[in-house]
Write a structure and sequence with these properties.
252 residues, 9 helices, globular, single chain, mainly alpha
Length: 252
């Protein structure tokens, strides 16, 4: 399995995917630099307000679209390299190859999440009043990554089945479905809503981007362990099921 991971990892060297992984978090630094031009001299943003902004935009826009694009690009590389014909020449189980692809994508999403932590802290130094809670930035970014792992098998399936348009289309549809479902009682049924819903108690922001007032039921932290458990179970199940589909697809 380690050899498969290393082989998949090599495919990302000098690729656009790696640039995308680091470019997405840099948006927040760029935002801070632009904001500096418009903030009145001596004024700054409250740390909690900036925290809510970052961790509303990140799980709402960047994670679903970024995951969709990374999965689509991974499939494009495979098709250019021979559309998995190498599997017929080597003793590699298709299911193991599929799981290796998922793990490498999860690894690069983790790198992007770590980049988001750094970018948010740098941006916070530039435009906030020095009250940006570092521990919340770290928890919010890593928690978003953890519960968004479940998107990888779905997006990879769409890309392998119907190509890049399907993966991007699913990502866009999921993005809007997630923000609609997140504040409601059925948020657990929509994987794209999990990160947004968990950011309510962590970052104090409504899925629509509005700061939550004290006493709002969306601030209830009990949803965090539930969301983590459901997302990891779904990730395991979807990885296995899509792996079975991929293995059968290769046999045909």
């Amino acid at each position: 399995m380690l050899n498969i991971f290393q082989s998949e990892h090599l495919k990302y060297r000098r690729s656009f995917s790696v640039k995308l992984v680091w470019a997405a978090p840099l948006f927040f630094v760029l935002f801070a630099l632009v904001a500096l031009l418009y903030l009145p001299k001596g004024q700054s943003l409250p740390g909690d307000l900036f925290l809510g902004m970052v961790f509303n935009w990140w799980p709402f826009i960047f994670v679903p679209l970024g995951t969709a694009l990374l999965c689509a690009l991974a499939e494009v590389r495979e098709r250019k390299a021979g559309n998995y014909r190498g599997l017929r020449l080597h003793n590699v189980r298709p299911g193991a190859l599929w799981f290796g692809k998922i793990m490498v994508l999860a690894y690069y999403m983790l790198l992007s999440s770590l980049g988001t932590i750094a970018a948010a802290l740098i941006a916070g130094l530039l435009i906030t009043d020095a009250t940006l809670p570092v521990e919340k930035v770290v928890v919010a970014s890593l928690l978003t990554w953890l519960v968004s792992l479940s998107l990888i098998p779905l997006q990879l399936l769409a890309a392998a089945w119907k190509g890049m348009p399907a993966s991007i289309g699913l990502g866009v549809a999921g993005m809007f479905a997630g923000v609609i479902a997140a504040p409601g009682p059925n948020w657990l049924y929509v994987p794209w809503s999990w990160a947004l819903r968990l950011m309510c108690p962590v970052a104090g922001v409504h899925p629509n981007g509005v700061p939550l007032e004290s006493g709002n039921p969306l601030l209830e932290p009990s949803v965090i362990p539930v969301g983590i458990a459901v997302s990891l179970l779904f990730f395991a199940a979807s990885s296995w099921l899509t792996g079975v589909w991929f293995a059968r697809k290769e046999v045909k």
